[in-house]
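Checklist before submission:
- one chain only
- standard amino acids only
- sequence pasted in full

Submission:
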Amino acid sequence: MLNNDGSIAQSRISSEKFLGIKVLTPVVTFRRGEEGKIKIQLTVPIGCLQMVGQCDVILAMMDQSEDQCTGAAVSGQRDCGIALKSREWSRIYEIPVGAIEEEGHKYSATYEVVLRTDAHFHQPIWGLYELPPVKIVIEEGSDKEWSKKYCRAVNDPHLLTFDQRPYDVHLAGDFIMYQHKTAPIQVQARFKPCSGNSGPHCTCGVAVQVGRDVFVIDRCQSGRKRRRMLYTSCMDGTLEVRKRHDYLYNLYTPYGTRIQVNLRGKTYMNLQIYPSIRDVGHTRGLCGTLSNECADDFLLRNGSYLNQSEANKTCGNFKWSDYRWKPDTFSRSWMVAANESLFEDYDPSNAKWPSERYLCVCKKNVIKMRIDGRGTPDCSSSVVSNCSRRREKVVAVGGGCEVKRSSSKFLYGDLVDRRVKRSETTDRKIKMETARLTSIGNATSFCREQMFKSGAFDLCADVPNVESEDAVETCALDIELTNGSLEWVDNPKEALIDRCMSELRVNTTLNTHDNNTESIADQIRNIACPNNCSNVGTCVNGTCSCPPLIGASDCSLNVTIPPEIYGIEGDGFCDVSQMSCDQILIAGDDFTETETYHCKVDVTHVLFDGTTSSAGVVRTNGDMETLMSISCPVPAKKMLTSRIGLRMSPPFVRTFNVSLSSDGDSFSESFEFFQYNATYQELQIINGRPVFTLKIGFCYIDEQGVPDGWRSASDNCKACNSSLNPLEWSPITAIECEVLREPVSQSNFDTSQLYWLLAVTLVIALIVILVVCQQRFRRMSNSKKCSYDVASETSDKDIELQNEILF
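Returned file contents:
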């Protein structure tokens, strides 16, 4: 460059300008239970092709940590990235960031993530563009007390709020124990008299809802129909149920809240609810408000507080009288009507788990790349890692969740049960000797002495956040309420050991080994067997070793007695238009992991004309889902040998008579299971029996229902016309089909007939030629046959004459 006078100007360097995508927050810091935001901005426009009005660059966030259990995650969406829009290139974009946390009292972590664009097709310069790493720092939350607390209902039932305020409930009904104020999460408990119709009440049912998922444990009712343990709704997949052993179940919410249910005996159970950091200040119900203030625990459902002096006490140092306090006004406010009860036919379809509560993790080292360069995300509603739950067996979602959707449920009241009722089932439970305490005044000292005889209880008494005196006071109160009965003594002891085991799983200090010695946690786990092995088995490294003919994880069952069976969930009807119907869920009780269960399925086809035909018997092993349910697989059609033969009526409905055995020889009574399709099959109850008919406007062809007007896949000129023939394809009157059929209707031969006609014509022509040839040769006086020898000596004139004859 030249100056005005023509001399060479001195060169100058312009200020630097970054061209691309700039990270505005290289470090993002937030507290546990909260979220942060990565902010980025384009410094230049995104170039698009001329024919494209707008083009987007997808920017994905990928976690670089090796840990497959925890990590940084994109929050509030079902993908790992965001779209940078060409028309809005200059604005600041935000990526919401959360974390999959570890379970425990303490949690802080630092993760490193990278941001990378996809393989952009409009401008290759933007494709697979990787930004500098961003550091995600998660700090411990300000409230650290929440992880040391829990809410519980033990025995008849003695309640403890999250802030550890004791009280009693002696009411029957369904109650909201815990409800989250901003998320669709709730836990309900069902109370009934412990014996008879009066006196102390006990917890006999627990139901949990997370979004549109509901799991019910109901052991309150006797008989076949209502005792159950299963998913009754599973539309979101947000509620996880796991089994620690035959009688202990853990239900996990996406926030990490854990609902623990320990089944005690045939009917009752201990309930404990362990909150998460996202529950702080957001709980209500019989568990109160998790806030470290006992005075605000007794919030009524209408939003006001209980106006009693006992409700305003501060936390700590509660006395015997506090355990016996019954705030009935508060408790009744949280009783739910039948239409709100999770134990009844509750419809959670309007409680969908919000999409903004999902987290998506993309690990860079294990990412599956799509064609556009974006990673395949691992999206979940859970913000807490489930790696610590691996020793617990997952309870399958299928079976009961699906058959609950039976459209025939309202008809069951008119259905005559053809099953033969067997005599009263012999209880498999081993009876424990119970006695009475003659001097109730000594109940506290008696309970303390009895409980500390347990080695596990003795060790647990020294574990932080485990109050052994709470169990002693609960035990003494039960003795008083039952006039000296010792039947309930073990329940508070087992509840405290459960509380102790829960503390061990979240307290890392207790799991620390010192000088090659066992940790406190290992010492307790090795002697804390379920229910002390019912005093008949031996505890070996935390597992019961049972005597012969005794089973279950706590050695509480006589396995020579078959398990009790109530029937089939869903009233035995399964609509294949709404569910898979590949499993038959048998409801009963005392199904344990220590036994093998055999399913016998007798298959029958209900034909279209209403008659039936046997299709064989199939035997398979059943899969234990829970203590109260066994899943038997539905035999596939290809496994069956139908005896229908050449009968004209096709199979219309499949029915199964299912029976169960624990030894493979002695089977239970059979239970009916009907598999049908409500789309085209009508179910009615006539004279107490189910009758299936074809709905108006449908045909049943090739064992499938098709609506009127539906054309055949193999012949487009045939369709379903139920008024003409509901069992076969009928010809249609479309113009194109009439044109195709016209030549066939006027000519009475097909292609093979044409070939025969041509062959006959050729034979006749050949015969005519031979006759003419023979007559001409006869006219020749010097020749007897119509031929000549090309090797003979003939004159040119003869050859010419022969040629004329032949040609």
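Reviewer check: The CA atoms of residues 287 and 370 lie 47 Å apart.
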